[in-house]
Each structure stands twice: as C-alpha cells, then as structure tokens.
Automatic annotation (TrEMBL):
Major site of localization recorded for this protein: membrane
Protein name, as recorded: MFS transporter
Provenance organism: Ancylobacter mangrovi
Transmembrane segments: 48-68, 75-93, 99-122, 134-156, 162-184, 204-222, 228-250, 262-289, 301-322, 334-353, 359-378, 399-418, 424-445
Cell compartment(s), UniProt: Membrane
Sequence ranges assigned to domain Major facilitator superfamily (MFS) profile in this UniProt record: 10-449
Alphabetized UniProt keyword annotations: Membrane, Transmembrane, Transmembrane helix, Transport
Pfam families per the UniProt record, alphabetical: MFS_1 (PF07690)
Gene Ontology molecular-function annotations: transmembrane transporter activity
Membrane protein topology class: Multi-pass membrane protein
Gene3D superfamilies: MFS general substrate transporter like domains (1.20.1250.20), Multidrug resistance protein D (1.20.1720.10)
Amino acid sequence: MSETTRPWWVLVAASAVLGLVVLDETVVGVALPTMSADLAMSQVESHWVVNAYLLTFTCFLAVGGKLGDMLGRRVVFPAGAGGFLLGSLLAGLAPSGGWLIAARAVQGIGAAVTFPASMAIVTHTFPPERRGMAFAVQTTLAGCFMASGPLVGGVFAQTISWRWIFLINLPIVLLTVGVLWFAYVEKPVVRPPGLFARFDRAGLVLLVGALTAITIGLMQATEWGWSSPAILTLLAGGLVLLAAFVGVELKRAAPLIELDLLAIPTFTGGNIVFAVFQFEKTIVFIFVALYLQHVLGRTPIASGLLVSIAILPTLLTSRLAGRIRDARGARGPLTLALFLTALCVMAIGIGTVLRSEVLIGAVMILWGAVMPGIAVTARPALMRAVALDKQGQASGVNLSIQMLGGTVAIAVCGTLLVATGAYWLVFLVTGLCTLAAAGAAWLLVERPG
C-alpha cells in the first residue's frame, strides 16, 4: 500500500460498507414472505423486520455524525461497523420473529453510526479538487449494491436460506474495516473540555421516544384497534414528546438536530422532497416484491429480478439528471421528476388491479429512469441554500428526515395493506404523497424573488 494507492483503498473500503448499509434497505423485501413462513410471523411482524432497521437508523443518524466529530472517524467507523456486524449475525441466527426484529434494530443503529463516518472519511481522504470524483465512485458503488439487493435477497431466500442475506455481511464488514484501519490516516482529534457534557442527551431521548411511540402506534393499530387505549396513548404520547423535542432543540446552543435550518425555504422544500423520495422508494421496493409473490405467485428470484432490473436505469440516468439540473436549475426539473414518478407509482397500482406483471415491470423501468431526477437535483439545491459553516449539520438533518420518510412509509402503508388487503390503495396513497411533494418543490425550492 503506497501513498498513491492509499486513498483508493480507503474509498473502496468505505464504499463497500456504505453499500451494505443501503443494500439492507432493499435486500429484505423480496425475502419477507419466506422469512414470515419460516418464523411464523404475522403480516405486521414481517413489516417490522423492515421498519425496525429504518426506525433506529433514523433515530441515531444524527448521533452517528456527532460521535464522529467528537471521537474521530477512525474510532467511530469500526464501532458502528461492529454494531452492524453484530446485528447481521443475530439476524442470521434468529430463532423467532421477535429476535429478528430486535437484530434488525441493532443493525440500524450500527448503520446510523457508520453512514456519516463513511462520508466524512472520503471527504477527509481526498482533496477538494478530487472529491467530486470520489463521491461519484462511492455513489455508483452504493447504487450497484442497492440495485442488486432485491435479486440477492431472492436468490438466497429461494436457493440457500434467507439467513445468508444477513450472514454474507460478516466477511465483507470484517475485510473492509481491516482495510480502513490500515489505510485511513486521521489527524488526532482534539476534544475540548466538557465535550461529552454538552452532548444533547435530552434531545436524543425525546427523539427516540417520540418516533418509536408514533411508529408503534401506527403499525400496531390494525391489530390492537385504533380506539384501544394503548394505541391512543402511544400516538398522543409520541406527539407530545415530538413537540418537547422541538422545544428543547430550539433552545440548545449545540442541538442534536439544528431545526433553525428549516426556516430556509429551499432547505425545507428539499427535505420534504427527500422524505417523500424515501417514502416512495421504500414502498416500491417492498410492496411490489410482496405483491408479485403473494398475489401473482412468483418466486423470490423472479420477483427480485424484476425489481432489480427496474433499479438499473438509475445508474444510467444520474449523469443526465445532473446535466439537466446544471442547465435548468432545480425547481422545474425537480417538480417534473416528482410529477412523473407519482404517475408511475399510480400506474403500478393500476397494474396490480389488472394483475399485469408486464405493465408493472415496464412502468417500474420508467420509474427507475426518472428517480435520479429527484435526488441528484434536490441535494445540491438544499445544501447550497445553507451557509458553509452549517453544511455538516444540514447534511445530518437532511439524512435524518429522509430516513424518517421510509419509516413513515412502512408504518402507514403497512397498516393500510393489513387493514384493506388492497395493494392498489397503497400505491395510490404513495402517488398522491409524491404529487404533494411536487407542489412543495415548486413552491419552496429555489423560488424566484
């Protein structure tokens, strides 16, 4: 390992772990029916396998960024990766649905700590004039992992065991952490006196409590009853804790999440877009795979192949979306991309009514081709709207709100599917939410004057 090749070793290793983090968003959906049958899980429990990961990821993402700043990435990255590895091992060995759900929560915490550290490591390793190239490589590799997730999940679930979608993480994590440990060089972290005393523990407790209570309330409502005291207490208590969290954060000198940034229209609009972007992506990845197996009787491999093919165009159209954004700005292209993806999602719903796999597959390919027009266009706009000294905090807020969109998606649409059994309704609701985000983009993002 020479000084010339050292940055590339760091880039590949950091990208591989980041790829596993996004892979675990998409790999589970296709295998859910097999897991449910093997562990005798109810439909709601199977949805928790997805949402336990997303919920803890959302809650602890800001913590991961803060810990990286305080302790250094050379310490935090292996710690987060170790948590992700432990969660993967426990999930692969899970003897019951409850065990699997708990293991997925551990995975999510590890992923939340690892994700911002991975991004920061690449930033610190490459000089400013080469960071664009480095992040392009990292994004492409992560996109390849994400695209392969449904097919990988289908192959393991059908041929070997669904457990290997988690166990395969172990050697990859160990190898990449080992490479980073030897390749990544970090300047010593200077810790000011009282650093840990200033950590926003109250904000963390309130945020975790609020999101957990609201998510449990929404997801369990169909089993426990919307009017049950437990559900009403969870939802009301969650809202009270969320309000308390906002109040605490606005008064803190060093808050866990700097909510003052949401006063910037473009930043607020961009975050609405990213929340809905994650909402839409989660629903398509998970519920199309479920529909193909539960309703059309397709195998896990066939379902995974269709979903993976639909994601592949994103790898080809990302550069085009960037060029359009550079030429036209963010407001118009972003609004159009959201409008088109909304139509695509609702067309998938029509395909479920017609029981047409051909229509669903064709629309999903178009959906995949348009999706980069959202992420590639919105991210630069919302980050450019924030002062340079707030960029790190803005990134943390953005990622937290984005992942919250996926948590809400499973909570709301999972409950809707259990209550009605209507896949078309799930896709209709998702499409309408995306249309609302298109309106928010037009009104808030880079608005004139």
